[in-house]
Amino acid sequence: xxxxxxxxxxxxxxxxxxxxxxxxxxxxxxxxxxxxxxxxxxxxxxxxxxxxxxxxxxxxxxxxxxxxxxxxxxxxxxxxxxxxxxxxxxxxxxxxxxxxxxxxxxxxxxxxxxxxxxxxxxxxxxxxxxxxxxxxxxxxxxxxxxxxxxxxxxxxxxxxxxxxxxxxxxxxxxxxxxxxxxxxxxxxxxxxxxxxxxxxxxxxxxxxxxxxxxxxxxxxxxxxxxxxxxxxxxxxxxxxxxxxxxxxxxxxxxxxxxxxxxxxxxxxxxxxxxxxxxxxxxxxxxxxxxxxxxxxxxxxxxxxxxxxxxxxxxx
Length: 315
Prior knowledge:
Elements: E1 2-8, E2 12-16, E3 26-32, H1 36-46, H2 53-57, E4 65-67, E5 71-81, E6 88-98, E7 101-106, H3 111-122, H4 130-164, H5 171-201, H6 208-273, H7 289-311
Parallel strand pairs: 3-7
Antiparallel strand pairs: 1-2, 1-3, 4-5, 5-6, 6-7
Helix pairs in contact: 3-4, 4-5, 4-6, 5-6, 6-7
């Protein structure tokens, strides 16, 4: 699908779904899940190279931004929610800036793009060229990344509290792993955007106002990366606490088995001795021999238990 946004009379932006070569004052051509025919048409009309979905995924990290005499091409990560809405994945979105027109190629429905389209249609005076649009898309995406990191931080604090109160279950480890994965995914996305913005700031094509906005976005990204690193450290600490709690529980179990083993050794020894089949055993002929052996077994069991209880092993 192809969405085209034009600016007319400096006041109205019109959204159209069909492209014609005679259209002027185009600000944005959004290619949403485009067919090969749509990509070929735009590439031929504007003399630009648009990577296919397969080519885009194979682009090396060092070549995700490039600029020539005609255009700037950026492939950067945007977070895409997966089916369960609890996990996210990074998907490359292609931005091409050519003749002050923004071309975007995406294969997922992104709320950021819908929000920018609403803002653009409601406030056309805010956008003079494709660089303004690109800056606004990044601004809103970074704001949403910040909201996600704040939500992850709240979940991290709740998880830490749960572990400290010994309220642990089988889901704790899964939740910890999920939060670590989410933080790493957001951080990778922010790293990728920072690299693209830093490269664009070196270009002479964006206007001073756009560069000013990009600098602000870059500062926000740096702050978010630092925040994400702090969250990762907190999750590592939680993992350490979880490991310590598990070790403590295991030590308690080992102590209990140790007490039981030691307590059962003396009565076992007594029973073994009197279970020997020797003819000369004076206690066998004694009428109080059996009660005495039982009493010895009970006492030999209680003495270790009381000793370990006094030492605090049974608390």
